[in-house]
Amino acid sequence: MEKSGLENTKLGLFLAGVLLIALFSVTASGDDQKNLSIIMDYEPPKLFTPKNIYIVSKEPVQVEFKVNAIDNTNGKVHVQCDKISGSIFKLGKTTVRCETEDSTGNKSRSSFVVTVGYNIVQIPSWVKQPTKFWIENSIDDKTYAKTMSFLIKEQLVDIPFAKNPNNSESEIPVWIKINAKAWIDNKINDDEYSIILQWLINRNIIQF
Protein backbone atom coordinates (compact mmCIF):
# COMPACT_ATOMS: atom_id res chain seq x y z
CA MET A 1 0.00 0.00 0.00
CA GLU A 2 2.94 2.30 0.83
CA LYS A 3 4.45 1.63 -2.58
CA SER A 4 1.13 2.36 -4.25
CA GLY A 5 0.89 5.71 -2.41
CA LEU A 6 4.39 6.67 -3.51
CA GLU A 7 3.58 5.80 -7.11
CA ASN A 8 0.44 7.92 -6.94
CA THR A 9 2.47 10.86 -5.61
CA LYS A 10 5.01 10.51 -8.43
CA LEU A 11 2.20 10.27 -10.98
CA GLY A 12 0.58 13.41 -9.55
CA LEU A 13 3.86 15.35 -9.76
CA PHE A 14 4.40 14.14 -13.32
CA LEU A 15 0.93 15.22 -14.43
CA ALA A 16 1.37 18.62 -12.74
CA GLY A 17 4.66 19.09 -14.61
CA VAL A 18 3.03 18.19 -17.92
CA LEU A 19 0.25 20.69 -17.24
CA LEU A 20 2.72 23.49 -16.47
CA ILE A 21 4.68 22.78 -19.64
CA ALA A 22 1.46 22.80 -21.69
CA LEU A 23 0.36 26.14 -20.19
CA PHE A 24 3.78 27.69 -20.83
CA SER A 25 3.74 26.45 -24.43
CA VAL A 26 0.31 27.98 -25.08
CA THR A 27 1.39 31.32 -23.57
CA ALA A 28 4.64 31.37 -25.49
CA SER A 29 2.86 30.40 -28.68
CA GLY A 30 0.37 33.26 -28.18
CA ASP A 31 3.18 35.77 -27.68
CA ASP A 32 5.01 34.43 -30.72
CA GLN A 33 1.87 34.76 -32.82
CA LYS A 34 1.35 38.30 -31.58
CA ASN A 35 4.94 39.25 -32.36
CA LEU A 36 4.66 37.55 -35.75
CA SER A 37 1.50 39.49 -36.57
CA ILE A 38 3.37 42.73 -35.83
CA ILE A 39 6.33 41.70 -37.97
CA MET A 40 4.05 40.60 -40.83
CA ASP A 41 1.92 43.79 -40.71
CA TYR A 42 1.67 45.17 -44.25
CA GLU A 43 -1.62 47.02 -43.81
CA PRO A 44 -1.31 50.83 -43.69
CA PRO A 45 -3.32 52.86 -41.18
CA LYS A 46 -6.74 54.16 -42.18
CA LEU A 47 -6.41 57.92 -42.57
CA PHE A 48 -9.54 60.04 -42.18
CA THR A 49 -9.48 63.59 -43.56
CA PRO A 50 -12.41 65.97 -44.07
CA LYS A 51 -14.09 66.55 -47.40
CA ASN A 52 -13.13 69.72 -49.24
CA ILE A 53 -13.95 72.77 -47.12
CA TYR A 54 -15.61 75.92 -48.48
CA ILE A 55 -15.55 79.13 -46.42
CA VAL A 56 -17.49 82.20 -47.60
CA SER A 57 -15.30 85.19 -46.81
CA LYS A 58 -13.78 88.25 -48.49
CA GLU A 59 -10.59 88.05 -46.42
CA PRO A 60 -8.24 85.38 -45.02
CA VAL A 61 -9.87 83.38 -42.26
CA GLN A 62 -9.05 80.84 -39.54
CA VAL A 63 -10.18 77.33 -40.46
CA GLU A 64 -10.72 74.44 -38.04
CA PHE A 65 -10.67 70.81 -39.20
CA LYS A 66 -10.18 67.31 -37.79
CA VAL A 67 -7.93 64.51 -39.03
CA ASN A 68 -7.25 61.14 -37.40
CA ALA A 69 -5.91 57.68 -38.21
CA ILE A 70 -6.50 54.16 -36.91
CA ASP A 71 -4.07 51.27 -37.36
CA ASN A 72 -4.89 47.56 -37.19
CA THR A 73 -2.05 46.86 -34.70
CA ASN A 74 -1.21 50.22 -33.12
CA GLY A 75 -4.71 51.59 -32.72
CA LYS A 76 -4.84 55.39 -32.93
CA VAL A 77 -1.73 56.82 -34.61
CA HIS A 78 -0.42 60.37 -35.05
CA VAL A 79 -1.22 62.33 -38.23
CA GLN A 80 1.08 65.02 -39.62
CA CYS A 81 -0.35 67.67 -41.98
CA ASP A 82 1.39 70.58 -43.69
CA LYS A 83 -1.32 72.86 -42.22
CA ILE A 84 -2.66 72.55 -38.69
CA SER A 85 -6.24 73.09 -37.61
CA GLY A 86 -6.82 76.71 -36.69
CA SER A 87 -4.35 78.06 -39.27
CA ILE A 88 -5.17 81.20 -41.24
CA PHE A 89 -6.07 80.32 -44.82
CA LYS A 90 -5.65 82.92 -47.56
CA LEU A 91 -8.23 83.69 -50.23
CA GLY A 92 -8.33 81.03 -52.92
CA LYS A 93 -7.56 77.35 -52.73
CA THR A 94 -5.10 75.66 -50.40
CA THR A 95 -4.39 71.94 -50.58
CA VAL A 96 -3.77 70.40 -47.16
CA ARG A 97 -1.66 67.21 -47.37
CA CYS A 98 -1.60 64.72 -44.51
CA GLU A 99 0.44 61.62 -43.75
CA THR A 100 0.50 58.96 -41.05
CA GLU A 101 2.73 55.96 -40.34
CA ASP A 102 2.46 52.91 -38.06
CA SER A 103 5.23 51.25 -36.04
CA THR A 104 6.22 48.94 -38.92
CA GLY A 105 6.59 51.75 -41.44
CA ASN A 106 3.31 51.43 -43.33
CA LYS A 107 2.22 54.88 -44.52
CA SER A 108 -1.06 56.44 -45.62
CA ARG A 109 -1.47 59.80 -47.35
CA SER A 110 -4.51 61.92 -48.09
CA SER A 111 -5.35 65.52 -48.90
CA PHE A 112 -8.24 67.95 -49.04
CA VAL A 113 -8.78 71.44 -50.42
CA VAL A 114 -9.76 74.49 -48.38
CA THR A 115 -11.39 77.21 -50.48
CA VAL A 116 -11.84 80.66 -48.98
CA GLY A 117 -13.75 83.24 -51.02
CA TYR A 118 -17.02 84.80 -52.00
CA ASN A 119 -17.54 82.86 -55.24
CA ILE A 120 -17.43 79.14 -55.82
CA VAL A 121 -16.29 76.99 -58.73
CA GLN A 122 -18.95 76.25 -61.34
CA ILE A 123 -18.17 73.74 -64.09
CA PRO A 124 -21.21 72.26 -65.88
CA SER A 125 -21.10 68.48 -66.25
CA TRP A 126 -21.28 68.72 -70.07
CA VAL A 127 -17.80 70.30 -70.06
CA LYS A 128 -16.48 66.78 -69.47
CA GLN A 129 -17.40 65.86 -73.05
CA PRO A 130 -14.91 68.20 -74.82
CA THR A 131 -12.38 67.29 -72.14
CA LYS A 132 -12.85 63.63 -73.03
CA PHE A 133 -12.35 64.42 -76.74
CA TRP A 134 -9.10 66.16 -75.79
CA ILE A 135 -7.84 63.26 -73.65
CA GLU A 136 -8.61 60.83 -76.47
CA ASN A 137 -6.69 63.12 -78.88
CA SER A 138 -9.79 63.84 -80.95
CA ILE A 139 -8.93 67.52 -80.48
CA ASP A 140 -5.47 68.98 -79.85
CA ASP A 141 -4.17 71.07 -76.94
CA LYS A 142 -4.73 74.36 -78.75
CA THR A 143 -8.36 73.59 -79.57
CA TYR A 144 -9.11 72.49 -76.00
CA ALA A 145 -7.46 75.63 -74.59
CA LYS A 146 -9.53 77.82 -76.95
CA THR A 147 -12.70 75.96 -75.96
CA MET A 148 -12.07 76.49 -72.24
CA SER A 149 -11.08 80.12 -72.86
CA PHE A 150 -14.43 80.75 -74.58
CA LEU A 151 -16.42 79.02 -71.81
CA ILE A 152 -14.68 81.01 -69.08
CA LYS A 153 -14.98 84.29 -70.98
CA GLU A 154 -18.70 83.73 -71.48
CA GLN A 155 -19.00 82.79 -67.79
CA LEU A 156 -20.33 79.35 -68.63
CA VAL A 157 -17.44 78.07 -66.50
CA ASP A 158 -16.62 80.04 -63.34
CA ILE A 159 -13.06 79.72 -61.98
CA PRO A 160 -12.63 82.15 -59.06
CA PHE A 161 -9.20 83.38 -58.01
CA ALA A 162 -7.64 82.90 -61.46
CA LYS A 163 -4.36 84.82 -61.43
CA ASN A 164 -3.10 87.09 -64.16
CA PRO A 165 -0.64 85.31 -66.47
CA ASN A 166 2.97 85.64 -65.36
CA ASN A 167 4.52 83.60 -68.15
CA SER A 168 3.56 81.84 -71.36
CA GLU A 169 3.74 78.21 -72.45
CA SER A 170 2.60 76.55 -75.66
CA GLU A 171 2.25 72.91 -74.61
CA ILE A 172 0.11 71.30 -71.94
CA PRO A 173 2.13 68.91 -69.71
CA VAL A 174 1.19 65.22 -69.59
CA TRP A 175 0.26 65.41 -65.89
CA ILE A 176 -2.54 67.84 -66.78
CA LYS A 177 -4.18 65.19 -68.99
CA ILE A 178 -3.77 62.59 -66.26
CA ASN A 179 -5.67 64.83 -63.83
CA ALA A 180 -8.27 65.67 -66.48
CA LYS A 181 -8.98 61.96 -66.94
CA ALA A 182 -9.29 61.57 -63.17
CA TRP A 183 -11.88 64.38 -63.24
CA ILE A 184 -13.88 62.69 -66.01
CA ASP A 185 -13.76 59.41 -64.05
CA ASN A 186 -15.03 61.25 -60.93
CA LYS A 187 -11.83 60.51 -59.02
CA ILE A 188 -11.34 64.22 -58.37
CA ASN A 189 -14.10 66.81 -58.07
CA ASP A 190 -14.80 70.08 -59.88
CA ASP A 191 -13.00 72.12 -57.27
CA GLU A 192 -9.82 70.07 -57.66
CA TYR A 193 -9.99 70.25 -61.45
CA SER A 194 -10.43 74.01 -61.26
CA ILE A 195 -6.92 74.16 -59.76
CA ILE A 196 -5.67 72.58 -63.01
CA LEU A 197 -7.54 75.17 -65.07
CA GLN A 198 -6.08 77.95 -62.93
CA TRP A 199 -2.61 76.57 -63.64
CA LEU A 200 -3.32 76.75 -67.39
CA ILE A 201 -4.68 80.30 -67.04
CA ASN A 202 -1.64 81.39 -65.04
CA ARG A 203 0.63 80.21 -67.87
CA ASN A 204 -1.41 81.97 -70.53
CA ILE A 205 -2.42 78.67 -72.18
CA ILE A 206 -6.06 79.44 -71.45
CA GLN A 207 -6.77 83.10 -72.24
CA PHE A 208 -9.91 85.11 -71.66
Short account of what is shown:
This protein is globular. α2 crosses α4 (174-184) and α4 (174-184) runs antiparallel to α5. It has 5 helices and 9 strands.
Provide a descriptive summary of the structure in words.
This protein has 208 residues and is α+β, with helices and mostly antiparallel strands. The chain contains five helices and nine strands, in the order αβββββββββαααα. A hairpin with a 3-residue loop joins strand 4 and strand 5. The protein is globular. Residues 26-34 have low confidence and may be disordered.
Characteristics of this structure?
208 residues; alpha+beta; Immunoglobulin-like; 3 domains; four-stranded mixed sheet; three-stranded antiparallel sheet; 5 helices; 9 strands; globular
Mean pLDDT: 81
Number of helices: 5
**Globular, elongated, flat, extended or rod-shaped: what is the shape?**
globular
Terminal CA distance reads: 112 Å
How do the helices and strands follow one another from N- to C-terminus?
A: HEEEEEEEEEHHHH
The tally of beta strands, per DSSP, is 9
- Biggest sheet: strand arrangement: 2-9-8-6
Number of domains: 3
Helical content stands at: 25-40%
